[in-house]
Please model this.
Amino acid sequence: MTQPTLNRREPSGMHTLPEALRTALTLAAAGVPVLPLRRGKVPFGNCPTCKNSICGDRPNMKMPGPCRCPAPCHAWAAATTDPDMLTSPAWTAAWRRAVAVAYHPGGAGLTVVDLDDADAIAWARTALPATRTVATTRGEHWIYRGVMASRNAVRPGVDIKSSMAYARYLGPGIGSMADLPDAVRALAGKAPSPVQTAPHAVTVPARSGECPHRTPAFLERGIGMAVERITEARSAVHATVYRTFLAVLSTHGRCGCLTDAHVSRLFAAAQTKGESPRHCMDAWANARATLGL
Model:
């Protein structure tokens, strides 16, 4: 079986199509399943029921829970190599609004090690074999041949995107693609590490029989400030999300005031910055573990 490539060589006759769709069709022809991303680097809902992901892949939407469409319709499951589907009216409309092209690494027989910052890149250069490298806005994607389980925050600044995940297409990259090494597979078997930029003190209020916050306004103001902090992040989004979750839990995590609605607001803010639901859950679990909750 011929391995797909991430090289972009456009066939003739596509110059009238949206640029993102031209890129997608070229990748699809090479065996790479693709999908469009809208603003915020999140997928479109690809059927009327799931327009704007209302079917439940974001926790603040009206219909929480798994998608009940007759076929996969969003996120990594929407990625396809079928040119007829990619050029259908509904998809063409999405491609005209798309801000980026994404692909399903696992569907292409690939694994992406997403290195989010300079420290993560420095670690990879000493710990992992050289392979195809693609520059990102904050770091690098290291692409290997082979499929494995995806997992976020396997160590500070490092995510693994392969099966049941999507990665943004940022060009063909440089270097020869190596086989997926055991060193990368082993990362998914470890407990995820908290993503922090610097150690800092955390004060956890002692629990008593009475809520120390006295009024709901205190909690509401805290959640609002946390959402604002995440929304205003311009870099180091992973670290900002983790530190914000940690701050919220350090103040409100032991008194019983936090509800699912509060947590959903925090997760929704993180996902509008491009974080995946899985990363949100991992970051929340890591913060709880750090505080012993």
Remarks:
- Strands lie at 34-38, 42-43, 100-103, 110-115, 132-135, 140-145, 151-155, 158-161, 167-168, 178-179.
- DSSP finds nine helices and ten strands in the chain.
- The radius of gyration is 20 Å.
